[in-house]
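Lecture notes, unit on protein representations.

Consider one protein chain, 70 amino acids long.
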Amino acid sequence: RLLETTLEREVGMAFLEKYREESGLLGSAIVGDVGGANVLIYDDLISTGKTVLRASEVLHQKKARSVSVL
């Protein structure tokens, strides 16, 4: 909760479903409400960027106000 301490306010969390099949990366279910939120994606390992791109697209479909990647 370092971000909450730094910002001195509550920070929500959401999780995006992700799984792999022979056809590629799948999953678009989100656990958590992102509508109207400024979303920060934290990914500790980005190689091709496909997961981050897919997550960003899904978050925008769910009406996130903005999406940033760290």
